[in-house]
Amino acid sequence: MALAAAGLLGLFLVLRDLDGYGNWNLHRDSMDALQWLHVSKYPPSITFTCLELGIGLALLALFTLLDDPGRPRRGLAVLSLLGSTAFFYYLLHVHLIGLVATATKMDSHSHGLAKTWLGAGLALAVLLWPCARYRRYKIAHPDGWTRYV
What we know:
It is built from six helices and no strands. It has helices at residues 2-18, 33-37, 46-66, 77-84, 86-104, 112-140.
């Protein structure tokens, strides 16, 4: 997995460096990191695919390396919780962020990345407890409606 991740990320760097292929005419304006990461998601370009699969495989290889079935890792408990309640979290966080944006009358185009990270962190902090409760309910009722959410 690590070799495949390195290959995909290397291919991403080569294609993005060429700046004329594989990104649906989203050319770099400068050498800034954000310009390198500006890839076409819809429709998915080859640079987007290489970047996303490369990062995913690198993380999977890292988590596989850290995994020890004999003892749970407390540092990965949050990831385990979100992984077991992913759709539930998704359904709640979309509405929570929309509600907060409406209540605070925030402009969606100001403060950029800082506001995005703050909003994601707050949504995560607020929804950890409901996700934990939902996972307990889901484990207690394995044949109920929860197997679909």
